[in-house]
Amino acid sequence: QRDILASAAASYDISRAKGNDAQLTEAASFFVEAFWEAGTTTTRLQLGGRERDQIRSQQADDMKSRYGELVGSRRLQSSLFVARDDADVIVGCAGVEAALVDVREGRVLSRANSEALMAAQFNGMSGRERGEFRKMDVLQLTEALLPEYKVFGLLSNLAVALATRRSGLARRLCARCDEEAARWNLPAISLQVEEANEAARGLYEALGYREIFRDEEATALRLQPGVATVASTLLLTDNNELLTPVPSTLVTMAKGL
Fold first, then answer.
1. Contacts made by residues 64-72, CB under 8 angstroms, sequence distance 24+
2. Which of 39, 110, 206, 223 is the most exposed place for a label (fewest CB within 10 A)?
3. pLDDT tens readout for residues 101-139
């Protein structure tokens, strides 16, 4: 059985998703099904129609902010990879972003927050100063303006269809993210995972990731299907309690350090 799954996984086409709304919305819908509804940290969940539409919309917004097309260039790159079967159906996805990591404090910033922090450093500079700094690549720029941070790749949004688990597809997707981070000349790649997600941590350890710090006072989002507020029910609005933060231990892992 495993040999059959591995053979199928090797045949899946993995490509970089375009950053347009259509492809990112399609990827978000897959991620809701493969991660939120069939996660490894929690038991499988069943969402109602409105609940599924809401979480798909929220996930699409998140992916657009991470991987969407922007006017002009960005200092920190990002890519989303999707795996498709012979019928052109998505069976897996994984994203990688260039992001700032504060190794001493154990903080990992998203690409968007990293970009905002870098942009803030340019405020108040003269045109000549800005011109000098803009000649630098992102690693040089970070060392000059934000020496407390390092630029790592940040692996995120990894999910595979339930039928493809333990086939090697997740490893292939992670490998593509590794290649992308190397193409950006980043020295290391990191990720964050809940301690309770033993399956994911086992995969990452097998791929060479090692724990670099943990936050035992973190929170993680959990789906609460069927728990609707009176207002959301009567007014047909989004249910603010559909995604609820719960206490969790968050482990940051990295390789290439």
1. 64/19, 64/21, 64/24, 65/112, 66/95, 66/97, 66/110, 66/111, 66/112, 66/156, 66/157, 67/17, 67/19, 67/24, 67/95, 68/19, 68/20, 68/21, 68/24, 69/18, 69/19, 69/20, 70/19
2. 206
3. 988 887 888 888 888 898 898 887 888 888 888 888 899
